[in-house]
Design brief:
two-stranded parallel ribbon, single chain, 171 residues, mainly alpha
């Protein structure tokens, strides 16, 4: 056990020494920067407008299920078994519809995210490259894989600002 601990400590020291020799290290979360951008918000608004009826349906189903559940909890003790069974069946039907429409919306959002990411990846990479050169960064780590980072080493906000500036310049 002690031997493994020594090996682990030696490995960590070696990796830390290698990281220091590498120069300036930064972190960036590409997805967060891209999907928090003004362009992404405008694009996603178009998607929500396109699926607005389904979104309204999901919210209405959710309210109906909550209302039925509250009725069951409040009046269940004085209701007949048939009335309770009917309300439980109503909930099951509404849950089924909710899953259908909710799944449809999730699939649409996931598809939009993939398409938006693919379409904007070259521009995102170009802006990131400019930022890396300007900040003289030698190594960039994925922000989603990092547990903790000092805010001055996180390039995500700067990338987001540059994306927004580029979008505003396009208009």
């Amino acid at each position: 056990m002690i031997k493994w601990t020594k090996v682990l400590v030696a490995s960590l020291c070696f990796m830390a020494g290698s990281a220091m020799a590498a120069g300036k290290i930064a972190v960036v979360d590409l997805e967060r920067a891209l999907f928090d951008s003004d362009g992404a918000k405008a694009s996603f608004k178009q998607v929500t407008d396109q699926f607005g009826d389904d979104l309204v349906k999901v919210k209405a189903l959710e309210k109906e299920m909550v209302k039925i559940q509250e009725t069951l909890q409040k009046d269940g003790a004085i209701m007949s078994d048939d009335a309770q069974r009917k309300l439980r069946n109503d909930i099951k039907e509404k849950q089924s519809e909710y899953k259908f429409f909710g799944g449809k919306l999730q699939q649409a959002e996931q598809q939009w995210r993939q398409q938006f990411f693919r379409a904007n990846l070259p521009r995102l990479q170009a802006i990131l490259k400019e930022l890396i050169d300007a900040e003289k960064v030698d190594m960039v780590l994925n922000g989603q894989a990092v547990i903790h980072v000092s805010p001055d080493l996180d390039l995500t906000k700067m990338l987001l600002n540059k994306l927004n500036q580029a979008s505003a310049a396009k208009k």
